[in-house]
Design brief:
It comes from Deinococcus cavernae. By secondary structure, the chain is α+β, with helices and mostly antiparallel strands. The protein contains twelve helices and twelve strands. The strands form two sheets. A seven-stranded antiparallel sheet has the order 1-2-3-4-7-6-5. It has a five-stranded mixed sheet with strand order 8-10-9-11-12. A hairpin with a 2-residue loop joins strand 3 (43-50) and strand 4 (53-62). Helix 3 (84-99) packs antiparallel against helix 4 (103-113). The longest helix has 17 residues, at 186-202.
Amino acid sequence: MASGVLGAAQAQVGGQAAPVLSNALFGGAARGPAGTYLLPGGVSVLLSQNQGFLMSGTVQVKYTAPAAQPAAAPGTSTQGSGGPNSAVARVAQVIGVLSGYGEELAGPLEAFLNRPDVAAQLAQGFSVGAEEYLLSAKTEGGVLKVTLSLPQVDARAFQAVKTLRPARTPSARPVVVRVYSDFQCPYCQKFETETLPTLLAKLPDDVSVEFHHFPLEQIHPLARPSAEASECASQQGKFWAYKDALFTDRSWLASNPQEVFVRLAGKVGLNVAAFQKCVEGRAGKAAVDAGLQEALRLNLNGTPTVFVNGFRAANAYDANGLLNLIAFARVAGTLPTPAATPARP
């Protein structure tokens, strides 16, 4: 997956600026005013930095609309010719570096911007989602400008939950890690048993971790029953212990799940009779329903999905990447950024 490239590159908007500037693409760059870098081929790059983090990058190049260009001869390319395709290719290359995805994003982005229907919209400008990023593109005065940034979900879009691991110390500017998960999902188990322990061992004291229900019922028939059982554990103040038990002991997937749910309840110290009554009466259903609706409002389509404050993590399994995103979120604050339109490269 491209997220693996991102994690390895560590050169991206949302990370430290130094790896980006050490990229060969910036090796011969001349410094312009106010954080601008002038690259070969007439490309200028404005890097917005804060406390060592790269907050956004804007790439500009002279651009002529395709309709005003002579058609290329059959079997030839406009690459390097100074035509619009050449300009778009240079922009896409820089965006690939700024994203950390390299050619895995640059190639599709170049093809996307060269589509006639997309080129026709450049004068008005538009924004699209590209992986975890927001791409904004616009032409003005013969210049193509493309900005790469990390969109931030408004904090009001997240619902409050009781299924959390609270911060060890209070903070005036708290950071929240929100995990959208499905108990039957094998990838969620990988996150819970491999990534999360590593993350928790290094987690700053003022960071809380929330578990948000996102049962993928269409493919995981036991996702909802296990989620509702965990809510019954939450009613006795033992959600985190019961959650860990469900992800560690997977026997409920192969045998009578209700029997295993009850056995695990006793194992983590719940009042078993009260737990059974809660499960049989489906007292946890409303909380699971609310989590599912929240995930759908956020347009999530898979688990696990992790947010740090309002920033969506590119790779949920990269504990160091999540710690970096926590540091970035502190610097960025909590101001929402424009949402992406449905289109994407």
